[in-house]
Amino acid sequence: MVEAAPWLVLVLPAMLAVATIGVVTFDAALAARAAGRPESLAVSASVPFREAARLLVGQRRTTLAADGVLWRAGVITLPVAALSAALVLPLGTASVADLAVGVVWFNAMEILAWAAVWLAGWGPNSAFSLVGGYRFVAQGLAYELPHMFALITAATAAGTLRIGGIVEAQADLWFVVWMPVAFVVYLLSAAAMAFWGPFDAPVGRELAGGAAAELSGVDRLLFLGGRRLLLVVAAAMAVPLFLGGGGGPLLPAWLWTLLKTAAVLAAVVWLGRRFPTVRMERFMEVAWMVLIPLTILQALVVSLVVLVR
Amino acid sequence: MTAVLFWVFGIGAVVTGFLVFRLDSMAQVTFALLASFLFVAGEVVLLGLGYLGVVIILMMVMEMVIMAVFMIMYMMNPAGLMPMAMYHNKRGSMLISVGTFVALAAGIIVVDWPARSGRPPADTTYALGESLMGPQMLTMMTLGFVLFATILATVLLATSRGRYDRLGDDLRAPRADDPVRGGIGR
Amino acid sequence: MTLELFLLLAAGLFAIGLYGALSQQSVVMLMMGLELMLNGVIVAAAAFWYYVAPANADGQVLIIVVITAMAVEMAAGFAVVTAIFRARDVDMTDMAADLAG
Lengths: 309, 186, 101
Prior knowledge:
The complex is a heterotrimer.
Chain A: E1 3-4, H1 8-34, H2 41-57, H3 68-85, E2 94-95, H4 102-122, H5 127-158, H6 163-168, H7 175-178, H8 180-193, H9 218-242, H10 253-274, H11 280-308
Parallel strand pairs in A: 1-2
Helix pairs in contact in A: 1-2, 1-9, 1-10, 2-9, 3-4, 3-9, 4-5, 5-8, 5-11, 8-9, 9-10
Chain B: H1 2-19, H2 26-46, H3 50-74, H4 90-110, H5 124-133, H6 137-158, H7 163-167
Chain C: H1 3-23, H2 27-51, H3 58-88
């Protein structure tokens, strides 16, 4: 049902860019409302363009004894990782490449974000950015195993690692209905992998911007834009994995995909504004002591259901 | 096309592997090793093992990021700001390694390798899974035990505080006494 | 792209790793040499699977074992370095040559 469509490689970045602009707009509107100055949609929608223009014109900062190669590599890896992970993202019934190991490919590409944020923190030879990079590695160790178990649960229920196969297996019943724990853990890990919302300690305000502290100009645009792009791709991947892909009664498959993705993204962005930042050590203990047993139990339940079916 | 990719990945793996021992900055050394692993994963994918190639990418990126943390912790010149040469027995080890390579290459070229028997299955991932759950179940169990033992051993080696330091002499303290408090309290 | 070429690549990686494992003073760099050697073993195992016995999955199982061995070795190595650093404040192999203490 999901076939590979290489022409999508031109359309997909444009759609992801539109979604990223939407994320920035919604986030700016929520921020203005939280600050007590609610602004109109037009003003919020101009925020991404204004920020992008400002950053494109801005000067790149250079620091003393910076590790240039690693710094630039880290900054460029974050958007590249997001785009590579989007290779297996289906839009309705077409994805750029329906790899036979799509789930593992998605996981591997968003692991590149670990390397990207650490490199961006190490590169400029600055204490605050290095602390931000280390915070992201700690956070990564915490969210990664629950994330992998959630992915394994969806793949086990479908019996295949192909994202198209997982979409096809949800033709009768969406996975979110009988594996809600995996869905919630996946959304939390999607926010954590893009260091968004309650997991934004790596770029926290008490670190003067953390891993993004010394970035300016086009580097900052690439890094923070890449972060939001990764959030969009991770939230969009929840749709074929748990919410049935393009399935739905009246509208065509691609429209359903867009609607579901918009709903998930709105929920994740709202979540980011709703809760304060969680500290690394607390999240680490919660992730290892609570989330991993829960996801393993969920995987056990799903495996038993698959065996009995 | 695959021949071009083979040469690109192969030369890339060897060059970045050698750079690991030539660069000054420890962080660059770690990521040169990561690049070598990524090229090897490309070679494995070229041989038709898609799942294993992607798993190598996944695991090696995670491993190298964690290794970078340890490199910065333990090496005295992490940013390469001073030229550093920390070798011992340089000539001897170079002789041994070149000698090993010559011996292995001679063996590779001279030995009469057996012909191919059979064809790759249609779904190599499924074949791997079936094999691990069936004929190679012993391997699977051994790997499971080894990983569990490693987790236990590394945690025990690395922490300097035990249960009695954390929870009091009769293990009955209501809240664990950690220098960094976790999120649950145990 | 024959079996011999893949095995030569594997031998090259193994030799470079051996050079690193023998010549480096720091424990962490020595472990990097070991990882490169295991890298070579992975290429050799994959090449043997494809060119000699592709019908059964034993070559793939060998690759899985080698990847696990890499992870285990790195974890154990770092734990040992941490423990020895705590005990004696050394991180060079030359100063850790005795088993006493």
